[in-house]
Write a structure and sequence with these properties.
The structure is a single chain. 33% of the residues lie in helices and 33% in strands. The protein has helices at residues 2-17, 43-57, 61-65, 84-97; strands at 68-76, 79-82, 102-110, 116-124, 130-140, 143-151. Strands 2-1-6-5-4-3 form a six-stranded mixed β-sheet, with helices on one face. The longest helix has 16 residues, at 2-17. The chain is globular, with a radius of gyration of 29 Å.
Amino acid sequence: MKRLVIGLVAAALVSGCSGDPGDSGAQAVATPPAESAPAAVATEQRALVDRFVKTINAGDARGVGAMFAESARFDSVGRIYSGRAEIMDRFLVPEVIEAGGTYTLLDVTPGAGADRVVARYDFTTGSGGGERFTYDCAVADGAFTDCVGRYVG
């Protein structure tokens, strides 16, 4: 047993004394790799989102409608609207524009595909209530073609 203890002490001394004379024996701390910067939102997608917020907050139903493709689809928390006319007539006009709602854009990030953009909003109802949600939309030829709206905390 005595030989085992002497051997371990000797091994520790040899390993502790090896290396550069100026080495304090401190371990180098590995620096984690830098995270890659998030992908940028395409300029035309960002411009469309910004224009949507400005136009809908101004109550311009015709202008908002022009931002949706004729065959666009909108899933608003499970309520599906098919086509520009239905999106406007059954959703955005009565529930936002006529209700006096206001969008505040919080951020815009790339969606799951190159054609998608995700915008996060605070929405203030005309009666003073509030909601936070995202619109995850596909964009083609300068128009929204497929949007999925979901509440977020």
